[in-house]
Amino acid sequence: MSRLVAVFSEESSLLAAVRGARAMPDHRAAIVDVYTPYAVHGLDEAMGLPGTRLPWVTLAGGLCGMAGAIALQVWCAVLDWPLDVGGKPHQSALAFLPITFEATILLGGLATAGAFFWRSRLSPLVEPLPVAAGVTDDAMALVLKLDGAGPDERTALHDLLLAAGAREVREEDR
Amino acid sequence: MIADAHLLRPSWVEGKPTLRQITDDVSRPLTARPTLGWWACFAVASLALAWGAASATYEVATGIGTWGLNKTVGWAFDITNFVFWIGIGHAGTLISAILLLFRQKWRTSISRSAEAMTIFAVMCAGLFPLLHMGRPWFGFWIFPYPNTRGPLWVNFRSPLVWDVVAISTYFTISFVFWFVGMIPDFATLRDRAAGRGDRWRRKVFGLLSFGWDGSWRTWSRYEMLSLILAGLATPLVLSVHSIVSMDFATGLVPGWHTTLFPPYFVAGAIFSGFGMVLTLLILTRKVMGLERYITIRHLDAMAKITLLTGSMVGFAYLTELFLAWFGGNPYERAAFWNRATGPFAWAYWTMMTCNAILPQLLWSRRVRTSVPILFVLSLLVNVGMWFERFVIIVTSLHRDFLPSSWWFYKPTIIEVGILVGSFGLFFTCFLLFIRALPMVAMWEVKGVAAAAAHAGEAHA
Question: Which in A75, B66, B194, B240 has the greatest CB count within 10 A?
Fold first, then answer.
């Protein structure tokens, strides 16, 4: 894949370049990704990424935790071996609430974190390929796909990125 | 006009550092040689830890008869320490989760160390119920697992079982939050180590950074993950100390049996936690040279929360006293009269002075921005909140309904040793943390500093 990498030192230049690239007429210059050392405010809107579905994972995990905790407590304390504790009813639903709540939070949180790692392909075994020096320090990089772009379009893109304030623009194949 | 508005809300980072400078300032202490001050603190902390370990070993080998407990006072030092440490843990989650939801930017410089403090404090807290079991190797009995005794299940109606679940959940979620928050910084340290040719750090931080490359698609999900974890941790932190308070409130002992306990305990927990955060940060910002990131304005903001929660605690003390009198229950009235004038009155008035009266000095801006006064006040808050738990537990138990069973309580050297040891564990962990991991969230501070720089440009 042939791609264009532009490196910036200012988030305002980066945002301008992202908006400019997306406004290109035939939209051939699709944005592969942007690499930044911190969460740049407004980049989501500028890139027009679809929203993440992580909250649904939280909901699913939370519901599993809730159902699991209710099932465990009811089965243990009501069905399997009902014990009379101070004359309280076996099915004392209100007293089962705290553990149900905690299990909801626990599974909801763990499921979300797990889904995040899985979806973002992050694990201790992943060896990162830094797109440009310093993207985890003080540089920001915009990567555009160049496949199928003609010479005119390449020049236009170069100009656009330099005009936005890129300190370095290079083409690479990988 | 707009420029004035900018002056009114100055940046939370002093001196407008560049992004590279932020990386350097936070990472430098991790590769520099530790100072003499650090070694001195570490020596004291590990000595305290060793004393605690020796005391705990003796206690486990001999039995909890080595403690000063008796048939009347069955809970004392140990449970006081447990509630004290759990309370300390609450400020970390408040800063990282609740202040995140409220978009309080000042949290960015202090959240990492406060979260670390939470993890270590919950570890210390967990030790005490384990030691109180007497036979900690049977600690797994508190979990509902299939067993050969029936199977006989744990009593899910007991607040003590709720407590186990709440605290394990709290520890797990806090740990995930803390670790996930460090991943972008691990990547920064990994690449910095690679640049310096430091292969050993490159390897360790490479494993810890999970291959983070700063991709925006990951950042975008990452922000959502932080928001969700904050949203989950907020009700969690409120639930944990509410459940701890129910360990007492569901009992019938005068002085415990009150519906006031959950909010009163939560406010007290956050109060004591902020006391500890202030103590630690006033010291570490100096020692680690991070005054630019943890500024007087941060201390001022934390002092305001201390004042708020301290006033809530003071209000709860007065409410308790009022209800003891107004409720017309003679046992309740006797319990509070005994607290204020009985053999433990000195503990009660220490608590009142440190928690309800002295923090009122924080109304003054001069006090909030004076580092030495703030430091002393934060220490007194720690002392006061330890005594609050001691007063609640011991004064209620030592004289309950039946005067013939009234007794006194005195801690033994073993109990004192375990308390000292828990401080040793806490400070040893914290000292290792500030040497090994980035104690300021670099990526978060970069975001705040960049936003402030742009606001400045736009308004100039």
Answer: B240
Residue A77 lies in a domain: yes
For residue A120, which of A53, A61, A65, A63 has the smallest C-alpha distance? A53
Tokens of B202: 């490159």
HSE at residue B70, side-chain half, CA atoms within 13 A, is 14
- pTM comes to 0.91
- Span B34-73, pLDDT tens digits: 888 889 999 999 999 999 999 999 999 999 999 999 889 9
Chain A residues in contact with B201 by the CB 8 A cut-off are none
Question: pLDDT below 50 — which residues of chain B?
Answer: 1-8, 458-460
The tokens describing B149, both together, are: 């005794």
* DSSP assignment of B171-231: HHHHHHHHHHHHHHHHHHHHHHHHHHT-HHHHHHHHHHTTT---BHHHHHHHHHHHHHHHH
Examine the fold and report which residue of A90, A119, A148 is the final residue of a domain before the chain moves on: A119
Ranges of H-type helices in B356-441: 365-368, 371-390, 396-398, 413-436
On whether ipTM exceeds 0.95, the answer is no
Instruction: Write the pLDDT tens digit of every residue in A58-76.
Output: 999 999 999 999 999 999 9
Chain B contact probe: residue of A38, A49, A78, A138 with most B CBs at under 10 A: A38
Q: Are B402 and B417 within 8 A, CB to CB?
A: no
User: B323-356, pLDDT tens digit by residue?
Assistant: 999 998 999 999 999 999 999 999 999 999 999 9
Cα A170 to Cα A158: distance, rounded to the nearest angstrom: 9
Using alpha carbons, list the distances in angstroms from residue B32 to A24, B25, B125, B216. 49, 11, 32, 32
Q: What is the pLDDT of residues B269-282, one digit of tens each?
A: 999 999 999 999 89
Would you say residue B459 lies in a domain?
no
Taking CB atoms and an 8 Å cutoff, what residues of chain B touch A38?
19, 184, 443-444, 446-447, 450
CATH number where A148 lies: 3.30.70.260
- For residue A141, the Cα-to-chain-centroid distance in whole angstroms is 17
Is B149 inside a domain boundary? no
Name chain A contacts of B20, Cβ cutoff 8 Å. Answer: 137-138
Site of tokens 């496949």? A147
Residue spans of chain A under pLDDT 50 = none
Q: Provide the number of structural domains found in chain B.
A: 1
Q: Is residue A104 part of a domain?
A: yes
